Amino acid sequence: MSLLRSLTGAMAGAVLWAEVAIADRSEEFATLMEAIRLADTVAIMRDEGLVYGSTLITDMMIDADTPGWRIRVGQIYDETRMLEALTSGLEAELQDLDLEPVLAFFASDLGAEIIALELAAREVFSEEQAELDARDRFEDLTDNDDPLVEQITTMIEDSDLVNFNVMGIMNSNMMLYRGLSDGGAIELGEDDILRDVWASEPSVREESTGWLQGYFLTCYETLEPEELETYAAFWRTGEGRAFNAALFAVFDQMYEDLSYLLGRAAAEQLKSEEL
Length: 275
What we know:
The protein is mainly alpha-helical. Helix content is about 85%, strand content about 0%. The protein is built from 13 helices and no strands.
């Protein structure tokens, strides 16, 4: 056998192995996205976006073309595009991460239960009163030194969730301003936008802290303490931290893109109202 033929055979074998590995990786990633119920999360995000868009236009203008605006907001929060963007973004962010331990947790009975609880709590929080009630319950538990409060507080601190949320909200607000500015609805330079956004940081931090406390309580109050500790321990692993960072990076980018588009659309709507 010639050297050339030997090398060619080796290369063909390597290519075949790589194709199998890629196929296995793609299947593992797809299974993980199903386990964390990404599509259901996007559906909730869309519903939240429609409500936010309605609130935004009410705050900004009088006699808005409500049916037309709802259509426009629905186009921005397009469920199919959102899911595709999040899926491709997560696939890129997670390309170097060992998915096996992440999938092992979320495909477990406990992982599936937690995902279901988190989605249900997100839907419950669509009602403002439910969120306020959860915050009050968290304060009551805090006053009574309930051990669940310490578990929730530790989980929030371990994953630096307040800072992640604050930066995500502020970046989204900045992109909303930019959309409004680029659309001609406001006259603010980059320095002005930054100053206004950063001025809101204390209130955003307070709001984020309260939201997380109430949300976590709503999610996890039915779990046994050892089950919640198992979940917390997962997020402290290297794979858990990397997965958490990837989720925030991709979802934050999504919210920034949506906020900019919403700002541009609101500017166009406002200008049309002035004509």
